[in-house]
Amino acid sequence: MARERENPKIQQQQSSSVLYTVEQLVAVNPYNPDILPDLENYVNEQVSSLTYSLDANLCLLRLYQFEPERMNTQIVSRILVKALMAMPAPDFSLCLFLIPERVQMEEPFKTLIVLSHYLETTRFRQFWDEAAKNRSVVEVVPGFEQAIQAYAVHVLSLTYQKVPRPVLAEAINVEGLSLDKFLEHQVTNCGWVIEKGQGRGQLIVLPRNEFNQPELKKSSADSIPLEHITKIFPILG
Amino acid sequence: MAAASYDYEDPSHYEADSATHRPQQDHQPYDPSFVPDSVKTFVVHLYRHIREKNVYEIHQMYEGSFQKLSDRLFKDTPWPSVDAVAPYVDHDHVFCLLYKEMWFRHLYARLSPTPKQRIDSWDNYCSLFQVVLHGVVNMQLPNQWLWDMVDEFVYQFQSFCQYRAKMKNKTEQEIALLRQYDQAWNVYGVLNFLQALVEKSMIVQILEQEKEGLEQFTATDGYDYNGGSNVLKVLGYFSMVGLLRVHCLLGDYHTGLKCLTPIDISQSGVYTIVIGSHITTIYHYGFANLMLRRYVEAIREFSKILLYIFKTKQYHQKSPQYEQILKKNEQMYALLAISLSLCPQVKLVTEDVNTQLREKYGDKMIRMQRYDDEAYALYDELFSYACPKFITPSAPVYEEPLVNYNQDAYRLQLKLFLYEVKQQQLLSGVRTFLKLYSTISIGKLASYMEVDEPTVRSILMTYKHKTHVVDGDGKVTSNADVDFYINDDTIHVVESKTTKRYGDYFMRQIIKLEEIINDMDRVKLD
Predict the structure, then answer these.
(1) Closest CA to B62 of B131, B147, B120
(2) How far apart are CA B328 and CA B320, in angstroms?
(3) Where in the sequence of chain B do the CATH 1.10.10 domains occur?
(4) ∠ CA B497-B498-B500, rounded to 5°
(5) Does the bond joining A234 to the residue before it have cis omega, within 30 degrees of 0?
(6) Angle (deg, nearest 10), helices B453-467 and A109-120
(7) Mutate which of B125, B294, B485 to test chain A, going by most A C-beta atoms within 10 A?
(8) What are the structural domains, with CATH classification, of chain A?
(9) Nearest Cβ partner for B464 among A59, A65, A159
(10) Start and end of every CSN8/PSMD8/EIF3K domain (chain A) (predicted)?
(11) Choice among A190-194, B212-216, B310-314 with the minimum mean pLDDT
């Protein structure tokens, strides 16, 4: 009787793993403990090459969950930093759901959870302060700052039609000349417009979308789809 | 029979479990080799119907006779052993595996399995699934039975994990047994069986081809009318639901939903034919979406199935699954109450369901809006009542002092959920204020809410972030009922009015009128 581990694919994989990319490995065989080292390497590769794969990382966390003694906390911490960078997607929570509570109580996870909390509640001032205190955790992952800035811009664009310059500055943690440069770039590439505020510095006009201008989406909701109208064609004729 | 599913591990169940417990009393000894005549008749007929591929009769015997015999003869003893009935069915290998599957299911539902029986049941599933996977099965079995197999397989896995995690009162023999059979109900084994059934059955491709009209599956309820077997295909199909459930039990909601994507949840399909499968699918689908903050999706699907249960539950009163249906029904109302408290989109809920919801949770939902300690306690209560039975899939570390860890997984999921609730704490307050104005300045709102201006700006952005879901492709969807935008220092509020679909209404009326006129024309002609 089959008391031994039911894993028909293992052998097949060992012989041909060189031919697969890690993404394919995960897709073809998501429940195979043997791909764990590949997945760990892949996390490091994501860090150095500025790429990201939630599915591969969840797969690795799952394998850690099944065999906690194989967990590598440094890798886990990199996965979590990457997940923070994926905001506004809920990836950070998705990862936490799979990490044992006793691990979450330790550093650097405690810090990362605090950082996530500030981002989730859009308290950017506190976030940047806390991040500055923990450079060793976040700075090992290139592109961290830019990714969080992109998230801040995303939330601002959902919220504001016109945002005061200091609010923007705080959210993306950029000031003075660097901010001017940043704005210049956004004006040329993303359709931002800079206005003079009423006496108190600049206002930045963000591109309109259906979220900072909710009227935009209404128009589409009130139309009748063509296939419904076709039903009365015979009658009209 | 499928009452053996879901969750019946009340504490007493487990206490009984941990000792080597013989449920049969001395004065009524259970003789596994004694086969009453009615059982002889039962297995002989069932065996014949299976050979003749008479799905209707198989279903009758499976749902009806087995249940009746169990009630009459095996209320608190197991059925006769497989060895005792084998002579009446030509010692047919596959039939004996099926018989044993039912034998264990009955045992789990009515008695408590011993540790060894848990392991033996695992072995039986291994043998059964291997036979199916090797394609040597040519039977046609009822969907209900095939669903029950997958459902029970996952249930017994969950039950085993709970049992194993209660290490504190284990006897030395039990621990020795666990160590000896460490591959029994191993999480890799469980997942790989389900995955293998999905892949080997080619069900994903079949469903894909069906969309293009090249294949029939849903149209024939999964049955094969060309002489083939439906067993592998339908087991593969239900295994996708099984994978969703296992992943939810593990807290892996993203992967769980991914496993279900081949099934189009917005339409009925083979999963809606069996009520147990329908409920399990939507319960886990909704729960996973709730944990992913896709509240609108959760609300929509819960509302739909709760209406369905509300309208059809009377037909299931005599079914062995009735109690489970009612329990999941109540749990889904609790999950709906949670979803609506975090995302007040009542217009997505149909009137009948809303009335029921108010009756059950109206009072609690009002208190949950307040976000004080009491509200927090209510979220805790409802979540704990309605969540799946989370499991820790790893084996205990036998070298360390033995502690119970069966609650760890549940506590973690609860904690993270309440964390989310806390992050949304101030949102219902700001929503209430926004509803009162069409425009209001940041400063004024700050003084009403008794916080400073930067805090108000943060709360407003949090509101936007939490009410706007971003999916994998970067597409943003708004879940907000009250929306707004800020222009410098002024908040402009836009309440999304229920856009009445007058157009569709008139279309329907036009067609109706036309039909009436046609009818009347016909009357005149007569």
Answers:
(1) B147
(2) 14
(3) 427-526
(4) 125
(5) no
(6) 90
(7) B485
(8) 12-142 (1.25.40.250), 160-237 (no CATH)
(9) A159
(10) 72-198
(11) B212-216
Residue A162 φ then ψ, to 5°: -130, 120
Alpha helix positions (H), B349-404: 351-368, 373-386
Report residue B15's pLDDT band, with 50, 70 and 90 as the boundaries.
Answer: very low
Which amino acid appears at position B160 of this protein? F
pLDDT attached to residue B152: 95
Is the separation of the CB atoms in B7 and B389 below 8 Å? yes
CATH fold of the domain at B427-526: Arc Repressor Mutant, subunit A (1.10.10)
Which one of B182, B403, B461, B495 would you mutate to disrupt binding with A, by most A Cβ within 10 Å of its Cβ? Answer: B461
Fill in the amino acid letter for B240: M
Which residues fall within 8 angstroms of residue B492, CB to CB, at 6 or more apart? B438, B439, B484, B485, B486
The C-alpha atoms of residue B418 and residue A138 are separated, in whole angstroms, by 26
> Helix, strand, or coil here: A205?
strand
Alpha helices in A160-175 (DSSP H): 165-172
Residue A162 host element (H or E): strand A160-164
Taking a C-beta distance cutoff of 8 angstroms, is the pair B127, A1 a contact?
Answer: yes
Distance CA B170, CA B15 (A): 10
Query: Between chains, do B496 and A214 touch, taking CB under 8 Å as contact?
Result: yes
For B254, list phi and psi in degrees, rounded to 5. -60, -50
User: What is the ipTM, given to two decimal places?
Assistant: 0.85
Q: What is the pLDDT of residue B21?
A: 44
| Partner residue opposite B499 with nearest CB, options A155, A203, A221 | A221
Q: B37-51 and B93-110 are packed helices; what angle lies between their axes, rounded to 10 degrees? A: 130
- Predicted confidence at residue B199, as pLDDT, reads 92
What the block records as the tokens of B519 is: 């009818």
CA-nearest of A211, A158, A159, A208 to B490 is A159
User: How many residues are recorded in chain B?
Assistant: 526
Distance CA B446, CA B287 (A): 35
Q: Answer yes or no: do B189 and A231 touch at CB < 8 A.
A: no
What band does A220 get if pLDDT is binned at 50, 70 and 90?
Answer: very low
Residues of chain B in contact with residue A164, where contact means CB-CB under 8 angstroms, are: 488-489
